Amino acid sequence: MMELYYISQGENTQEHLQNIEKVCTFDWTDYGFLKYVQLRLKNISEEDYLRFGEKAKSICKTFGTTLIINDHVEVAKHLGVGLHVGKEDVSVKEARKHLREAQIIGATANTLEDCLNHIENKADYIGLGPFRYTETKKNLSPVLGLDGVRTIMEKLQENNIQIPVYVIGGITEKDFKELEENNITKVAVSTAMTKIAKQ
């Protein structure tokens, strides 16, 4: 069963919220279950991020899903929700200083070294990728593909490192089965989940 992590998308902020609501109301039983929803807004003021974050938090709370805020430590701190940091953002160690212990912090990784660094700094989960090329992110790290993802995850297992790892980046609905067959059951998806929820 796949553990799904939705990363919001939309032409504007309102569409991000509409898509979050559609994803939260969709019955994902045939795919797995929805665990996290990340509000990923770019080029927006902290005040507006906070305002729309409140609305996203309300939607997620209604449907029993955990909200994660992308990049903005202060917004996550104020809302009391999770935070995801990218490779170019504030470090997990620095973010942890500002958030309460119970607040989730996830981090993007592209290499085994990235993973080990995040684990050392007490990240709660890792977003490992990109699985393949994706247009939803600029300054893309080297594409890992199935072999790259599998190699890193096997190294973590060999070292008995237990941390949730969500494979991310360009994942399509068709990829779910192949990933599951390779014991990869946690995925972070944007476009594919938006399309599925709109059906």
3D architecture notes:
Helices cover 41% and strands 20% of the residues. Helix 2 (46-62) packs across helix 3. An eight-stranded parallel barrel has the order 1-2-3-4-5-6-7-8, surrounded by six helices. With 199 residues, it is an alpha/beta fold.
Topology:
Layout: E1 2-7, H1 13-25, E2 32-39, H2 46-62, E3 66-70, H3 73-79, E4 82-85, H4 92-98, E5 105-109, H5 112-120, E6 125-128, H6 145-158, E7 165-168, H7 175-181, E8 186-189, H8 191-197
Parallel strand pairs: 1-2, 1-8, 2-3, 3-4, 4-5, 5-6, 6-7, 7-8
CATH architecture: Alpha-Beta Barrel
- Tell me the domain tally: 1
Low-confidence stretches: none
What separation lies between the terminal Cα atoms?
Answer: 21 Å
Shape: globular
Q: Biggest sheet: strands, sense, closure?
A: 8 strands, parallel, barrel
Report the structural category. Answer: alpha/beta
CATH homology superfamily = Aldolase class I
The counted number of beta strands is 8
Q: What is the H/E order?
A: EHEHEHEHEHEHEHEH
Indicate the CATH class.
Alpha Beta
Q: What is the share of helical residues?
A: 40-55%
Beta-strand percentage range? 15-25%
Number of helices: 8
CATH topology: TIM Barrel
Q: Strands of the largest sheet, in order across it?
A: 1-2-3-4-5-6-7-8
- Average pLDDT reading: 95
Q: What would you report as the Rg, rounded to the nearest angstrom?
A: 16 Å
